[in-house]
Structure formats: structure tokens, C-alpha cells
Amino acid sequence: MKILMVEDDISVSQMMELFFKKEGWEQVSAYDGEEAVEIFKNHPHDFDIITLDLNLPKKDGIQVAREIRRISETVPIIMLTARDSESDQVLGLGIGADDYVTKPFSPIALIARIKALHRRVLLEDKPRTLPKNIPSNDFDLETNHIRISKSRREVYFDDTRVEGLTPKEFDLLYTMAQKPKQVFSREQLLELVWGYEYFGEERTVDAHIKKLRQKLKKSGPQIIQTVWGVGYKFDDSQVKA
Length: 241
Fold this sequence. Notes:
With 241 residues, the chain is of the alpha/beta class. Helices cover 40% and strands 19% of the residues. The chain has eight helices and twelve strands.
């Protein structure tokens, strides 16, 4: 695996390079935002994952993530942030990061997150069809085109499995698919999926919906619709078979 580590703290970058070498991985280092964008622009297909610090000189992590996403919509990004703030995490996810790790972090924990994200990406690149030995009544919920098993945490769009759903993305889809065409406000989704109020952090819903849509798009037409000024709804009734 080849990792682009964007980190202005040289000691942290050098420490992680030692850990990555033990895993047999190659690290390329960038110490400011402009350097990171330039490296990726010149070698957009070289990297399996990017770890991206939020606080960077010249261009911050948010700017870098936006520019990287204009070059590649798929390269996995893990945001590293010293700010233990929900709004920063939501903003990072909203502009295209796939995961975040709050500083200070354990090198072993970061490696585990990288491995998990890389496995997820590999699965997304290889859509699986519905196994022949799973009966149709082995699903908890079926709509026109979606079948969901809660026990296996699996979702199928027609006969293609939707890969890489996080627990919250799965719960969001299941919640809305139970009541097709019903409009859910962000407040309702926070209460139903997260289980409590987020007190103003409604953007976390938008960030997770965005990622859910990206994963559903790989299997078929878009079935999560925005109802402007209200919230979101699930509707696959107009999808052609």
C-alpha cells in the first residue's frame, strides 16, 4: 500500500513512516497543503490512501481535501485533526473525507483504521450479486428495488450488494426505507438513528446522507431524495427495473 501522509509535524510523519514500513507500506510525505496538492496532482493514481492533517500551513486540510476531490472522487481520505469538535468532523466528511482520527492518536489505531478503510474500498470495487442460496424471505425489509437484512447488515439493490456501508449509513437507509416516500426532517433522523439530539449538529445528517448516496449510486439510480427546506425521503418507485 502507498500512503500520502500530509502532516506538518515532521516528528509525527517520521514516526508513522516507521510503523508503515513494518506493515510493508510506502509513505510519501507532504508538510504543507500546497505541497500535498502538487504531489497528488502530479501522481493522482499512485496512492491507495491519503492521511490529511486539518491544520496545515499554506492551505488547510479542508482546502486540500476539496482540491483533491476535484482531481479524484474515489481516493480514500482519512482526516487527522487536533480539534475534538463534532462540527470539524462533520465538515471533513461533508467535503469528501472518508474517515477521521482525532489527535493525539495511537499509531496502531491509525493503522487499524487505514486497513479497515482499504478493505472497504476493495469491496466497493467488486460489487457482489445476491447469493443464490439466500431465500427472498430472509430479508427484514423489501421495497421495489431494495432488500435489507438487519441480522447480516446487508443491503441489495436489485441483485447487487451495496458495499461498504457504515453502521450509521445502514441505519439511515433502513429507517427511511421502512416508510417509503415519507419525508424525514434532520431532527427526526438524528433522534431515530443517533438516538438523541445533537443540539444544532444537523449537518452530520447531511454528511452521512452524502456518503450513503455515493455508495448507492454504484449499484443503481439515486433513491434518496432531498425535499428542500424539510429533509430527506426514500423513494425507489420511479426506478425502472
